[in-house]
Amino acid sequence: MKKTAASLSLTLVFAMLGMFLPLAGENAFTAYAADGFFVEDGVLTEYSGPDGAVAVPGYVKVIGNYAFEGRSGVTSVIIPSSVTRIGNYAFEGCSALKSVAIPDSVTSIGQYAFFSCTSLTGVTIPGSVTFIDEGAFFECSALKSITLPNSVTNIADYLFGGCTGLTSVTIPNSVTGIGRYAFQNCTGLKSLSLPKSVTGIGEYAFEGCAGLQTVSLPNSVTNMDMCAFSGCVGLKSLAIPNSVTVIDRYLLEDCTGLTSVSIPNSVTKISGNAFINCKGLTSVTIPSSVTVVESQAFLYCSGLKTVTILTKRASVAEEYVFEGCTAVTDVYYAGSQSEWLASGFDKEFDYPVRIHYNCADFAITAQPKSRSIAIGKSLTLSVKAIGSGLKYQWYFKKKGQSSWSVWDGRTHASETVTPNVSWDGIQLYCKVTDGGGKSVNSSAMSVSVLSIATQPANKTVTAGNSVTLFLKATGSGLTYQWYYKKSGQSEFSLWKGRTHASEAVLPNATWNGIKLYCVVKDSAGHSVQSNTITVTVR
Predict the structure, then answer these.
(1) CB burial class (10 A; 0-12, 13-18, 19+) of residue 1?
(2) Tens digits of per-residue pLDDT, 219-278?
(3) How many CB atoms sit inside 10 A of residue 296's CB?
(4) What phi, psi does 40 have (nearest 5°)?
(5) What domains are there in the chain, each with its CATH number?
(6) Strand pairing partners for 178?
(7) Residue 25 per-residue DSSP state
(8) Position 147 pLDDT exceeds 80
(9) Phi/psi of residue 133, each to 5°?
């Protein structure tokens, strides 16, 4: 029997519907197509629906590879609890995507899943996620903070590379490794604290993190690969863990703001170009454990002034270790002159440098000095020491106090402060501790702060009666000079003979409206000027 046109059309319709409706049978292939969601056997393979907020249907089990790729108009995505995995490049190029809700059913996030989602400001990763593949959040430039769950054990390569807006990251104790380029060019990141579980930092991991100022590395870290902190220009100091044996190539390349680095006794090799162009580095100590310092290890460290070398091994230095370090004035060497000549370091300096032989392996070489400073001006306190793995802690005792106190947060060899009036007469010293736990205290220094503690006050007096002008100042070796400007005069004149903090005078009628101030100087030549006062004579 022949089929009519109508029956043929009906057959075709049912055949087409069969392509997009669930098929019977437990193991049968299933496909859906509704509201722009193309789903094959539970995998969302493509979304072609409208832009804006998107809610993924509950029958989806996997956000497939490239499912939302290039959908620049999608602003938010709600993922249902049926989903267990987010595939590779799933949301790549969704430049308007601001938020995505990841349910705690998801266990893995594929490589470059959110690559170049430049509007994504925050994302919550649930504890169900155990694996985040490389580059998952690469170049998410608006991402501000991230907290990784304890279920994650590794930070993959390129994971947060190019996240320039990232200001904070919380890394759990479960993480053991930081991958290559993991935080490269995260310029907004200011501080970093790695947990004790981390053992390795991959190459270029924090390269170009220009805003990074403080880094805390645990002793669990055994290796830091080449260029790990290259270009971190804001980094001021770094304590290398005493579990590290090799300082890799270009580790701190172009860290121009670095002023101090602590190399522990565990280090046996300092690789070539490890500290290239660290122009802010003023001193460095090479510990006794070091067996080789490769060529150009400290190339162009133009601010380097003091070098301490505690290793006495022969032929430890390759050529050009300190090439371009033309500011070095003193080298403290642990061995004898003959050992120095055999070390290879003797060929490093082709300009006059003072070599100090047979130096102790741990000592203070420059004590802090007592200082005087005018109020409102900055003051730099400093101590110099030789040794390896050095740590510093300053202590203070204000005038009238009987015991010393820890100066919280002041843990560098050089500290710049702006003293206030309460600092006058303060005493300070620094406790220096080496990597082996030995400690030595610096000599105490004192600070005199030139300031006017009590300003002179306006006066009203009857003609013929005396009046006392008075001020109180702090500092050492103080001298005083008063100045005046009578009513109608345009400039102040030196008031001869008036050179005391307290001056008793007998005003006459010409004094009415006179203006006065006092300049106080200390023995170091600093000066401060008092407020200007007016004397009214009736």
Answers:
(1) exposed
(2) 999 999 999 999 999 999 898 999 999 999 999 999 999 988 989 889 999 999 999 999
(3) 21
(4) -125, 115
(5) 236-361 (3.80.10.10), 363-449 (2.60.40.10), 455-537 (2.60.40.10)
(6) 155, 201
(7) S
(8) yes
(9) -80, 170
